Sequence to fold (766 residues):
Amino acid sequence: MYKVLVSEQLVPNIHLLKIEAPTIARKALVGQFVVVMVDEVGERIPLSLADWDAEEGTITLVVMQVGTSTRKLAALKADGCILSLAGPLGLPSHIERFGTVACIGGCYGIGAIMPLARSLKHLGNTVISIIEARSKNLLYWQDKLQQVSDELIFTTGDGSSGYKGWAYDPLKEMLEAGKKIDLVFAYGCTFMMRLISEATKSFGVKTRVALNPIMVDGTGMCGVCRVSVGGETKFACVDGPEFDGHEVDWELLATRRTTYLEEEIRSLQRFECQQWYFETSKAMEARVERKA
Amino acid sequence: MKEKPELEKEKKTKPRVKMREQDPLKRIRNFEEVPYGYTPDEAADEASRCLQCKRPTCRNGCPVEVDIPSFIKLIKEGKFIEAAWKVKEKNALPAVCGRICPQEIQCESLCILGKKGEPVAIGNLERFVADYEAEKGGIQIPEKPRPTGRKVAIVGSGPGGLTCAADLIRSGHQVTLFEALHKPGGVLIYGIPEFRLPKVIVEREVEYIKKLGVELVLDAIIGKLYTVDELLNDKGYDACFICIGAGLPIFLGIPGENLNGIYSANEFLTRANLMKAYLFPEYDTPIKRGERVAVFGGGNVAMDAARVALRLGAEKVYLIYRRSEAEMPARKAEIHHAHEEGVEFLLLTNPTRFIDDGKGNVCKVECVRMELGEPDESGRRRPSPIKGSEFQIGIDVAITALGTMANPLLTKTMPDLKLNKRGYIIAEEATGMTSKPGVFAGGDIVTGSATVISAMGAGRRAAKAVNEYLKWRY
Ligand SMILES: Cc1cc2nc3c(=O)[nH]c(=O)nc-3n(C[C@H](O)[C@H](O)[C@H](O)COP(=O)(O)OP(=O)(O)OC[C@H]3O[C@@H](n4cnc5c(N)ncnc54)[C@H](O)[C@@H]3O)c2cc1C
Ligand code: FES
Fold:
């Protein structure tokens, strides 16, 4: 059992969990992830490490609520418990002094990009962070990113804050204007990583992406996480999760991620019904008690 | 002339007591165990067939040298609990082995009765005594030995790791068992399905080992969370036994293999067994319930996958194997059960490519017929494709059970550990000793995919060797 120390909603649908996990925190490196199983009937899902503190013995996860497992995680309160937490998994990002590096984050990836930007900055790189969201109220961690970036650009789909558009737009503008960017990192949803990779390809700027296929064990045992990179099948959990974005077969990744779409919807509906039932019965009980 | 008396003799030997089983048509709709086990009377009856040979050969077929005639004699005398203890002197997991050892090529293959009729059902009897003991609550926790003050780390909680842990704790060492998954038991938990090995049995064995005092650390992926060097140098362990299984699935390497609906047997079985996906949506992990399922391979893993697919509701399950049934490495009982349950065997057949439905899901597999040529290095006749014999079958789920390779996750963090060409750890057979001082290894990560009992044998030999090593060193 792993104790939840902090549980808070960052923005609608995106949740932060700080968990007591001293052994993982001691070993964690940039670009790695953990496999989480909330409870006895839970699923094993991979989540990127958004931060960790070896001294405090904690890790931080930024969880986007998409299915039953992530909903369950978000419903945990401080002092709650997680059944199983395994890691740190995957190969760490290769980081060194590259020069100017763009770190691009979207949805849950805004969390994961922060420690990366921090390490890159620490090694003396010029860090340009670009984060995207549909609207202003869905952006988070601007302050944290500001501290570890030389330049922070935020983009919103509706133009409610910062640049109107997606992360890909200012990046493309910079490249078109001839700005020298030595390396791009993109963490977030598949679609965003794909667009970024396509945008940088024609400029020949190397782009590293953190792939997010379905996983079970996270140790190379099951093969569900297979992706195609440069025409070769790789297991994202042990050969990745970071790969060269220009070599990834994006179509395959997107399709494989939808394997259980129907089941996910069914599971989520069931979970929501249960939650609703639980909440209403609690409310009823409270009312009965008050009357008594 | 010579034939007649032999025939007469054969008539005289009693036939084997059959174990009653769940009806095939019923059992393909549930995950409950297939054979029911012997009643005490049945067990005594079967035990009475044993000739109590002066020089028993059956024992030579047992990788852990269980004293077979003695335990069978105890059954004959109705001393079932004592019989169980007799087995346990050599075998820490009899309820498991009685169910899943390939007895027909081990102990039972050497039984004298087998020359003329059916050998004594040693496996069935072993299962009986273990279950009897568990049910009657006769399980004994031996007295704690005097602590030696030495600490041993065991990596991997499969049958090899569990056996080694049980032996070492009895020698008075402090033993920690590190397991990567959230549940201990290795293949016994994540691979072998409920209907062949009920999970309560594995849990019972694990409980026993915990009661002996073994510390179990789950979610501990050694190589990631700690390296073996850290265990030995920083965490105060004096020796380490590595028994992490083979683990890495082999895929067919044919076009279309990454389509949705194509599983490695490891994934399919892990979802079904470890994650209980057959109970979805009560359990959160989903699994595709294929209507027409193709399973590739001819081992126990293939049989398990095929039979799980049936139980998930498949209308048709094809078992596609490139050699003939005689070459199948699976236990005979499993092949028999698969036939009974209606799995269709497509023998001398090999897949060549998968075809998609235009939406990324597999909808057909193309296969080619094979013929057997000269024997290869394994002694089995090498199959080769017959040109122009390609044909297609409509499927919606495919499962590859072609065996496994060594998982490099841990070994890659140990540059001073000698591996063979295929990435398996090189360890001395008699002791499990590796090229790294204080580090021992055994089970599938040394031998390649083998059997539960051979991993247990390796665990036991390594425990002995670790004892010697600790004595020598301190
Ligand atoms: C589906 C299936 C059916 C089978 N049927 C039979 C049968 O009927 N009869 C038979 O005799 N044999 C059978 N086998 C083979 C048998 O299960 C194996 O030979 C046996 O389990 C090997 O034991 P082991 O202890 O070496 O490894 P495993 O049982 O594989 O256990 C290894 C354990 O180590 C853990 N691990 C791996 N890496 C690490 C790490 N880095 N850190 C910590 N822990 C780690 C794994 O999670 C696992 O729990 C079957 C195998 C499968 C897959
Ligand atoms: S998650 Fe199972 S092999 Fe990658």
